[in-house]
From TrEMBL:
InterPro entries: GlcNAc_PI_deacetylase-related (IPR003737), LmbE-like_dom_sf (IPR024078)
GO MF annotations, alphabetized: hydrolase activity, acting on carbon-nitrogen (but not peptide) bonds, in linear amides
Name under which the protein is recorded: PIG-L domain-containing protein
Entries under Pfam families matching the protein: PIG-L
Species name: Bordetella genomosp. 4
């Protein structure tokens, strides 16, 4: 039986993947791919202000609420989801957790990886997440790591759009048409009740990237997501 192709998303917090890569996830899931999201943390401290304003709130309740939101969002988008619970503000990643992520790479053998920008002066968890995602990728390629299991190839890494790209030294190099799955993405991020203030912001981002995608193609594109490549594209054709 032929297995489906795999895509991997490494998300610092439990909602990041929805805002920034929900369209790509839903699009590839619709095409029959197995999409897996790994959340390094629940975003329990820095991205859950609305929950903390509720009387009697506890850390355990915040984590459970954020887990439940992310699980429901992943289900709508068509993705599998895993949580590593490595802390939030600050996120801290041990060697054990790094090896665990490297083992996920070897288990899934993804065709591509989506993760955060390499810089973000507003959120130090985000660049740490992309560093960890890429370091785990390198470890999974090393013959000396778990030598009884096959090494990973070289899946391309795409950095999804940060909240303030100009401040993060991030440039949109790939524009992905997500128009056909936009309603799924919108439905998924409307589950993120702790961050309701971002719903309209990311709708405007998708419309703006859609307009840019139309200008850079001969197609009419309503909604798009933007990505920056880490590695050169290897291809036999330029068009």
């Amino acid at each position: 039986m032929e297995t489906s192709k795999q895509g991997l998303v490494v998300s610092a917090h439990s909602a990041d993947f929805v805002w920034r890569a929900g369209g790509a996830i839903a699009l590839y899931a619709k095409r029959g791919w197995t999409m897996t999201v790994v959340c390094l943390s629940f975003g329990e401290r820095g991205e859950s202000a609305k929950l903390w304003k509720q009387p009697g709130m506890t850390m355990a309740r915040v984590k459970e609420d954020r887990r439940r939101e992310a699980e429901r969002a992943a289900e709508i988008l068509g993705a599998n989801i895993r949580f590593m619970d490595l802390g939030d503000y600050p996120l801290r990643v041990s060697d054990e957790a790094l090896f665990q992520l490297a083992d996920i790479y070897r288990e899934l053998r993804p065709e591509f990886v989506l993760t955060h920008s390499q810089r973000d002066p507003y959120n130090f968890d985000h660049p740490l997440a992309t560093h960890v995602a890429q370091e785990a990728r390198v470890i999974a390629q090393a013959h000396g790591h778990e030598p009884d299991t096959p090494v990973l190839g070289a899946p391309p890494v795409f950095l999804f759009e940060p909240h303030q790209p100009e401040q993060c030294e991030w440039k949109p190099q790939v524009l992905l048409d997500i128009s056909e799955v936009w309603e799924k993405k919108r439905q998924a991020f409307e589950l993120m009740a702790a961050q309701e203030h971002l719903w309209e912001y990311y709708t405007r981002v998708a419309l703006q990237r859609g307009a840019q995608a139309s200008r850079n193609s001969d197609r009419k594109i309503r909604y798009a997501e933007a990505y920056q490549r880490v590695f050169p594209q290897v291809t036999e054709e330029l068009a």
